[in-house]
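BUG: 3D viewer hangs when loading the predicted structure for this chain

Environment: internal workstation, default settings.
Expected: structure renders.
Actual: progress bar stalls at 90%.

Input used:
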Amino acid sequence: MHGPGSAAWLLVALCAATGAYCLLRMRSRVEEQRRTAGGEALMGFGMALMAIPAAAVTPPRAAWVVYALVFGAAALRALWAARSGAHHLHHLVGAFAMAYMAVAMAAAPSGHAGHGAAGAPLVTGLLLLYFAGYVLWSGARLVPVAPVAAGGGPQVSGWGDRPELAQACRLSMGIGMVAMLLTM
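Structure tokens produced before the viewer hung:
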């Protein structure tokens, strides 16, 4: 790596690839998986856009307001969906974090975080702790506990129904969120 610019572009590529895979997951036959994948695609592409280095493109403040509104609406949707499952609470925290970062970027003097103090240190710290814990937890879930016999394991019908790939995408978005919060 040649500095923060190349790291930012790697984060953009990771988040965009994750968003693209989540779009593929939306073709699943399972309705709940399609709905979850749609929210995760929004997060992946939103993170990719927000991670573009300021040296390449500095969006106008109005763009950050639009991001805040979009992710605020996603947080409200996740709050409503959280009535039926705990996984939606993670989506709520993720959408809140994205809206929080967008508001902080709109308020930053340079219009982009990472170029001065942005956001509330306590909120940023709590979000960092949450996502660091989530990364460790979701990474541990990817490690197999016991070897799987040939032919054993769930039968899947396509790329959209691969739970280990979905978990890897969630892990990569969690890592991306930690990286983005560190620049706050």
